TrEMBL record, chains A, B:
Name of the featured protein: Corrinoid adenosyltransferase
Predominant localisation class: cytoplasm
Compositionally biased intervals (Basic and acidic residues): 15-24
Role this protein plays: Required for both de novo synthesis of the corrin ring for the assimilation of exogenous corrinoids. Participates in the adenosylation of a variety of incomplete and complete corrinoids.
Domain Cob(I)alamin adenosyltransferase N-terminal residue range list: 4-28
Length: 205, 205
């Protein structure tokens, strides 16, 4: 304690922050596995699942990596965004979904589309040049049983140690969460649709 | 009902999906506000808050928009990613944070850095060419009271109707959530740090 309350406050702040930094440094030092291809899952009802995956794609391209993208649905991302990523590096892009099942109302077609998308995903997993693979809305194909869950989980679990995979879509299966290294749930706290605002060009499409 | 259980299942599936589509179509039709610059907040302890913001930046550039980025912290995004975005269009990028307060341990410096960052944000809000402004980790500056909350909320509330703003950072203030049009909370369901895996190049930095 000194006679100067402002100095005391500054000292307390400094001490608190020093303690916090020590905790953080110890946590970083405790990690022992230096490199691991991560299976990342973005799920939950909120926005940002595919958008964050494409942010990761941007970063990966910044590292000079080749990336792969397979869209199991029609996808939140369109031709324009694909063109942007392709300007920046090597992108193997496949849109193989044909729209959500509540739009197509044809189960056989949905299953065939999911199967084609999954076969493409398997080929890209075997392409050694690819370091990041985005499987956009795979969770939705699994939720509707358009693909056998066991087969998908086994293949993802057997991926190369230098391949990162991002799986998006709400309602991730428990088996997918269990297989993943990193799972983020996007929760919707508030949405402008509730206030009568339409989907905004440039933001939502 | 028919004699064919497979046909029945297909019919039930079709009816269910038709119903779902009708609900969705009605929801879309109910929206009356055609254009509104959205205040979007990405908060919560999970990954993907800044990454989803940069995914939005990519999309905005795809629409030919000029974008602004102000980093109130040192930011999860580095020179490489900035260069990628700059290749794609007009980006006004300012990294004005000097690191988290538990690294700097100097409150006066933190406050001055936050003030500079906020003044830059205000200038960019007045630049009519900019249609999307990313205020990365503004929530953290507000949480530590490095900026007056009232001033920030008032300025954001008075933004142009064609300016979209994305605010990121955990622990968003209730006043920020109240002012926002769209709030997504990124929750951490599972993290590879807990399994002893270090931060991965190309994914986390």
């Amino acid at each position: 304690m000194t006679d100067d309350p402002e100095k005391d406050a500054a000292r307390r702040h400094r001490e608190k922050m020093e303690k916090r930094k020590a905790v953080q440094d110890a946590e970083v030092a405790s990690k022992s596995i230096a490199q691991k291809g991560l299976l990342m899952v973005h799920t939950g009802p909120g926005k940002g699942k595919s958008t964050a995956a494409f942010g990761l794609a941007l970063r990966a391209l910044g590292h000079g990596w080749k990336i792969g993208v397979v869209q199991f649905g029609k996808g939140a991302w369109r031709t324009g965004e694909r063109e942007m990523l392709e300007k920046l590096g090597q992108v193997a892009w496949h849109t193989l979904g044909e729209g959500f099942t509540w739009e197509t109302q044809d189960r056989t077609r949905d299953e065939a589309a999911a199967r084609r998308a999954w076969e493409t995903a398997c080929e890209l997993m075997d392409d050694l040049a690819i370091r990041l693979l985005v499987l956009d809305e795979l969770n939705i194909a699994l939720r509707y049983d358009h693909l056998p869950l066991d087969e998908v989980i086994a293949k993802l679990g057997a991926r190369r140690t230098d391949l990162h995979v991002v799986v998006t879509g709400r309602n991730a299966k428990p088996e997918m969460i269990s297989a993943a290294d990193l799972v983020t749930e996007m929760a919707q706290v508030k949405h402008h649709f509730s206030a009568g605002v339409k989907a905004q060009a440039g933001i939502e499409f």
